[in-house]
């Protein structure tokens, strides 16, 4: 019992971080009505800047040199964009640069981030539909995460912390007579969270700015009539939110990882929802409670009676999700509705009438480039096609049905691991494999079908909350599910087999109707077997045609009707719940196919293949290509990191380049949300194909609210 | 003749207020029934209640012999109880014709599979119904246009056409004439009685006394949630209760509308500065 209490209290440190980040989330929400999924990444960036200043004296600005050194661009010889300022000279400051200036400089970067988020992302998106706003915050998340990877190399940082936050301080022994030891930093974190919460609470309660924010939060138009500019209020709150995030991130420095910060937003979301996105004291409390639940849950999982299949790390990641689901389920209708009422135009989703021509064209193109004939583009081609195949699942669920699910790529991963399990026969697949996967020894085709069924079931489960909640809240739930799926299911050794937590070997001999269709070429020992390419092209074409046909038929019309107006859809006799489940089912089945096809391609899969940022990156690129059409998925597939477009531009693999491509994708994503409302660069859509490229120029300038902004002009210039 | 819709003691309570108070009302099969009443009388609430959009606190509603109190909105629509909305509520992302197709076709569990291989179910009756709905609402020339490209009045007609496309047994029209210009009003008014020839009964709510008195077979008058009078158009026209409750309010309402316009203008200016 004492041990359990100690574990509970041990979770307070993380809980305090959730509380601090949650406070920043609430501030941004009250200021602008946006739930910023990128809030954790904002904290992470400031923390890295601080750490870098303290270790090398360099200040990294939140962008990277966009003008690459590689490819034909090298010949342009353009001066590089400054990204790094050498601030502190180590000869002047023996040992470490001084703390206070470092801290202030880091927070100055946070201010800059806050201003960038306000002016470059959320202000232009203020009249966008919910999807646009969510995409904007996904863009922030992806951009900052990628820039962290590029600028700071993406390695773990160990830092000694500072002041009262030093992790190596003497721990508190025998706390409250419970016997265990608790790191002193836990208490420091709690103090920090309480001070931060109290500060924001007083700011909102007693200052004119705070009262104006609350007024604008409750009634934007009313506040405007009283002479307060809602946009000014929003801007100040963005800066405040960003600085709070920066402080939280810096305080938490003693255990950073590049992706950890960004995913901490899940706990912060739990805390903020616990405070109903309004109350600061409840948010702080919620954060601490979630932290304690995680600590306590992990302690419980250490017991011998705990079932093996519930992995400890899974329990930890499940707690925030549990709180989020409970709050949304029981309090969902009492949450503030600001920002959740759809305003603005949804991306147009035209029905395509020349599917056959498009499909023949795309398949022909793919075949020509594939190693069915020549083999030069093989690796990038299959990467692009796999991405396109997956993106069709997003076309259905996000584009047609308007349900923002950020968990589809995790479903792909789940299905891939299930397929391996279903066909696993307990023999060593390749001489150098580490693990042997036992399973039900199904034939390849049966395993394929069963794995799709399993993925679909999981998708339906994740879709369940969509019956009650929608818009950004669904995005929050699905994003939180990603980590839980990964830790609880995909990485679970007892569910998925021995290699699940590290490297899971795929079946070495997948064959359909006697034909080996794996991507691994047994002669060249590379993943370039031509039958795989052919198989992948056929499957993708079939799925693509089915998805486009769905839009042409009554199912697609019903989906779009629900996307537009659920009330009216019910009045037209549509069973909204069934239709949503159908959408989740179809989308998850497609995602599962994509995951399984990836597993056929390579000799081993890892849960990291399906990590949250890969999934969000794919969402970014399909949104960039055009989320509502089949063409959009094709274009999006060409653009992804490791795909055709970067290859043509001469960008090769590597974490840094991948980060750059994702960052460019994130910028494109945000611009696309602002400029086209998500219709994407695939403006060569069905009808445009018919009428020729001139149809592009026909766009009505009144469509865009912000047609004077710089970004708008820049992209329009680029796309015409 | 049997009643297609019958409510008895139907009550809807918001907080302490009875928006509909023990409403007893019947729509005979194949008849055109109207419900009138001043602003805030509870007319739209009544439609919301019988279509399942607000919960009723007492009483029941029987639709073609079945108590529909427990049914979800889409189940009521599937049974042929179809409504229009005062506030349009069109499917903005679908063309006019697609708006009608959505309402016209119902689905089976396997429909999506047929859709995937592009073998959509074609039902001659449904197609004819849709053609007729487009025709009668004068929307043939804009069948492929998006609703957002149409005038407010024609959007309103799309809403009515969408309800007609569902081949309803009873169509509930919630102020279909509000916001229509004269020509559009005439299209609507001139064709309303034709609905009856297509196997449906009509229940109309409107402000336009002239329209209601000219097309209805039977009229109910609602005020403060209670039915205060009912009868044939002739009886309603001559009823003193109605004159006092409804027509007396008319002048006040004109003033209220003028006031609303002023507010709107002010808000419009503010919005302009905001951008």
Topology diagram in text:
The complex is a heterodimer of chains A (720) and B (275).
Chain A: H1 2-10, H2 12-32, H3 39-56, E1 58-60, E2 84-86, H4 99-122, H5 130-152, E3 172-173, E4 181-182, H6 184-206, H7 208-218, H8 220-225, H9 230-251, H10 258-263, H11 265-274, H12 280-301, H13 312-331, H14 355-369, H15 378-400, H16 408-423, H17 444-463, H18 472-490, H19 493-496, E5 504-505, E6 511-512, E7 515-516, H20 530-552, H21 554-564, H22 566-571, H23 576-601, E8 604-605, H24 612-625, H25 630-639, H26 644-648, H27 655-675, H28 686-691, H29 710-719
Antiparallel strand pairs in A: 1-2, 3-4, 5-8, 6-7
Helix pairs in contact in A: 1-12, 2-6, 2-7, 2-9, 2-11, 2-12, 3-4, 3-5, 3-9, 4-9, 5-24, 5-27, 6-7, 6-12, 7-9, 11-12, 11-13, 12-13, 13-18, 14-20, 15-20, 15-23, 15-25, 16-17, 16-18, 16-23, 17-23, 20-21, 21-23, 24-25, 24-27, 27-29
Chain B: E1 3-14, E2 17-28, E3 32-36, H1 43-50, E4 58-63, E5 66-67, H2 73-78, E6 81-83, H3 96-104, H4 111-116, H5 124-136, H6 152-165, E7 170-174, H7 182-192, E8 201-205, H8 209-215, E9 218-223, E10 226-231, H9 233-238, H10 240-274
Parallel strand pairs in B: 3-8, 3-9, 6-7, 7-8
Antiparallel strand pairs in B: 1-2, 1-4, 4-5, 9-10
Helix pairs in contact in B: 3-5, 3-6, 5-6
The H/E string of chain B reads EEEHEEHEHHHHEHEHEEHH
Secondary structure tally, helices of chain A: 29
Number of separate domains of chain B = 2
Strand order of the largest sheet of chain A: 1-2
| Rounded radius of gyration of chain A (Å) | 25 Å
CATH structural fold name of the largest domain in chain B:
Rossmann fold
How many distinct folded domains of chain A? 2
Spans of chain A with pLDDT under 50 lasting ≥5 residues?
684-720
Radius of gyration of chain B: 20 Å
Number of E-type strands of chain A: 8
**Which architecture of the largest domain in chain B does the CATH hierarchy give at level 2?**
3-Layer(aba) Sandwich
Number of H/I helices of chain B? 10
Largest sheet of chain B: 6 strands, mixed
Please give the share of residues in helix of chain B: 40-55%
Beta-strand fraction estimate of chain B? 15-25%
Q: Superfamily at the CATH H level of the largest domain in chain B?
A: P-loop containing nucleotide triphosphate hydrolases
Oligomer kind: heterodimer
Q: Tell me, what's the shape of chain B?
A: globular
Overall average pLDDT of chain A: 82
Poorly predicted regions of chain B: 267-275
